Amino acid sequence: MTKKEQLYEGKAKKVFATEEPGKVIVSYKDDATALDGLKKGTIAGKGVVNNRMSNFLMQILEKEGVATHFVEELNERETVVKKVEIVPLEVIIRNISAGSFAKRYGVEEGIVFDAPTIEFSYKNDDLHDPLINSYHAIALKLATPEEIETIKAMAFKVNAVLKAYFLKLGVKLVDFKLEFGRLADGTIVLADEISPDTCRFWDAETNEKLDKDRFRRDMGGVEDAYREMMRRVFGE
Ligand code: TMP
Ligand code: ASP
Description:
- The protein is of the alpha+beta class.
- The chain has 2 domains: 6-82, Phosphorylase Kinase, domain 1; 85-221, D-amino Acid Aminotransferase, Chain A, domain 1.
- The protein has helices at residues 46-63, 99-105, 134-139, 145-168, 213-216, 222-234, and strands at residues 6-9, 13-17, 23-28, 31-34, 39-42, 70-73, 78-82, 85-86, 89-96, 112-122, 131-132, 171-182, 188-191, 199-203.
- The model has no long low-confidence stretch (mean pLDDT 98).
- Strands 8, 9, 10, 11, 12, 13 and 14 form a 7-stranded antiparallel beta sheet that branches. A 5-stranded antiparallel beta sheet has the order 1-2-3-7-6.
- It starts with 5 loop residues before the first strand and ends with a helix.
- Bound molecules: thymidine-5'-phosphate and aspartic acid (ASP).
- Thymidine-5'-phosphate (TMP) is lined by residues 92, 98-101, 175-177, 198-200.
């Protein structure tokens, strides 16, 4: 598979065409943004961690029956994925209160929920990704009712698989953000990435943060946290 012209550059990744119309190559950068793009920086080695971890997790999910965009890892920063039309929703699953949930509802972080929650944000930079419900998403024609049901079921399945997987590594999966895409035939697949950029990971014993919150909150030890998650997953 060869890399052709660049199709898109996002905050953390670039996307390139290939000789196959149904496939693109994603290239992971070390660039990081937070607070709606206001905070910018780099996290050395992040692109490698996110690429390898995301690919590894997507392969676990495929085995568990979750369709994903993953095709083939080319090297430590680049991966061939199926070309999709991204559904413009950020799908957030939470197991423990943290971040915007704790802020919005005025509760402390760390409350373990009896059942996971799901919420949607409308992916729209001009509007700052506002929180919306599934009826709003349908009204705005961002997805059909059937697609919303598929996405909800897939997101909860991802949570069940990954929560159990990370617990075995001594990591609590606090919350995470997923994105879904449509293949040319309309099939919904899990897309984007699953990484310390898009998940909150807390050490199961100490609750130490092992994810991008260390960057968002200027806590220091950002690279070490990404390296530690790499070590837990790959033993290196
Ligand atoms: P939140 O508590 O800030 O809403 O974040 C919930 C989860 O979603 C957390 O694991 C971080 C992830 N996330 C992203 O991946 N991208 C984003 O733009 C935001 C706001 C959150
Ligand atoms: N939404 C954030 C940004 O604009 C990303 C994040 O906090 O993960 O960069």
